[in-house]
Protein 1
Amino acid sequence: MTRSISILGATGSVGEQTLDLIGRNREEWRVEALTANCSAQKLAQMAREFGAKLAVVGDENCLPELREALAGTDIETAGGPAALCEAAARPVDMTVAAIVGCAGLGPVMAAIERGGTVALANKEALVSAGEVMTAAVAKHGATLLPVDSEHNAIFQCLQGHRLSDVARITLTASGGPFREWTQEQLDAATPEQAVAHPNWDMGAKISVDSATMMNKGLEYIEAHHLFPVGLERLKIVVHPQSVIHSMVEYRDRSTLAQLGPSDMRVPIASCLAWPARMDTPMETLDLAEIGELSFFAPDETRFPATRLAREAIEAGGAAPATLNAANEVAVAAFLAGQIAFTRIPVMVEQTLNRYSAAAPRTLEDVLSVDSEARAHAAELLENA
Ligand code: NAD
Ligand code: MG
């Protein structure tokens, strides 16, 4: 039976890997909408190749180029943030939410409000919206499947079990490319060094987050919303080989772990086929060749981001959305060569200290916290 799918952020790392899997099982899928921020040529080429009905760019300035690239086809085109939400609201069997940043929140909420099945990679949307999103999932009877490899691992380890029997959930972290760097080396880290991740091939923003460990901080908050076992039961362990993607320990002290190659197509496939399974092109896991798995406690002196995230979710209210917004501004500034690598967590902490708002209750509240927190973070940049 053919299933319909829309991919938000189709031109990115997760989007492309999703299309790679779909390309290997073409007869099983019908592509409804594909979206990008700009990358009009790439989006048009994907839309043609996969016979999409609709192609949307978030940046309206890129619409003319998209129209031209798709002239003569019957693929519909649209542009702008509202068009992204309209695309996400079209009924499909599965929506893959793979936009980076809080920019993806509106479209994710549109897909949830339609009561669909959403494979969520866009962690910033869940971190910012928190209960606003989980409440909408419950209200509209939507299904959220976690694409993020750690959360996908936890989701798999929880199948057939009760959340109330969980003693501990452990998120594994690779530690990123700077795991063994000194403070002095970190101060001088360049964007090129930060985006070269040892285990995973990812977009620029998440690669920097991985280097600062803010990725694990965001994932800690993400896990809290997806698997509400209480923050005291949520732990992080550094595991440089990225073979164990996360673990769940039950009250009888039995621990279940999910292992796999560090390739996002494995967790993406788990969502696409859920609750069944599908083939992926990866090699089978050769543990004898891997040889050793090692584990370390996180170092929050050199990498304060996980502490900031934990404090933000403990504080609750607008703090997680503020943390995320400040981090997005700081990462963009670092990638643009405006600030040092170690300024990223400092800027996040300063923004959290300077700005507070009432707990967001609606999508509009979340978006306004996001834009106000960004303005505060941008001010810190100007005064640097
Ligand atoms: P990416 O930068 O490679 O791709 C991002 C996609 O979003 C692109 O299609 C881009 O055009 C689109 N986009 C960017 N800004 C936009 C905007 N303002 N409006 C509309 N669309 C916009 O990012 P990625 O690495 O694929 O990551 C996507 C999401 O998945 C992130 O939230 C990331 O944290 C999460 N994730 C990624 C990986 C990975 O391996 N890449 C793993 C786990 C989770
Ligand atoms: Mg992850």
Protein 2
Amino acid sequence: IPLAGVIGFPIGHSASPRLHKYWLNRYGIAGDYVPLQVSEGSLETVIRALPKMGFVGANVTIPHKTSVLQIADHLSDRAILVGAANTLIFRADGKIHADNTDGYGFMANLKQGAPNWSAASGPALVLGAGGAARAIIVALADAGVPQILLANRTRPKAEALRAEFGTRIKVVDWVQAQDAVAEAHLIVNTTSLGMTGQPDLKLSLDGLSADTVVTDIVYKPLRTPLLEQAAARGCVTVDGLGMLLHQGVPGFERWFGTRPEVDDALRAAVL
Ligand code: ATR
């Protein structure tokens, strides 16, 4: 039977096995999906061995999303641009193809949760400049968002993304991010702020238009303080769980041949 899995260190916290096993079960596919705890030093050996053990592919998570680019034989344009991969496909000819579906997952979740949002309608305010922000910025630019207002606690990291991804990005100082709130048609938190056990994101939403869509990549809790505040102002909010679920779609489809659906039953099963 075809096998897939998720490679990371540590890996016990990963929701991907619940996600993919739910889909295998729902579609009656004889296959399995397992967590694989792999250290940096063994990464290449393990990845090269997996196809010989019946694996058709794998997801890659922290801390291996960048180093896996050195191991794969083919990289998608998206993986090159983002500088990270989260999905591996083990091809019949023995070659390993690496792709990044995080941006796809972000956009698919946004479209599902905020069907009336349109990329062309105005600027997006992105908070954070880490790995998740890179994938999201690339996806937003690709979707045609005219301007990305980027705020990060460590400003030089935002400046570096501007240098890399171009003038569509305008760096906003972290302590002045709230001045950009009124301009934004979309607000995205890509930091860990608001997650259970982390400090809250201290962003005043004064001036926020009720037409602005607010989304968070944090999904523990599902309703972050940012989303609660935005909802109280009448905004459409999109939680972070859907991004995780949607990023798994392209991999599952390529490995197992069925394009899986993201719906409420899946959300309940994964949470
Ligand atoms: P990920 O891959 O999830 O994006 P990351 O690359 O470690 O993780 O990025 C974490 C992001 O959260 C960064 O933008 C980080 O800001 P810095 O670049 O200044 O470190 C942001 N972040 C984490 N903790 C934060 C805090 N307490 N206050 C503000 N930003 C924080």
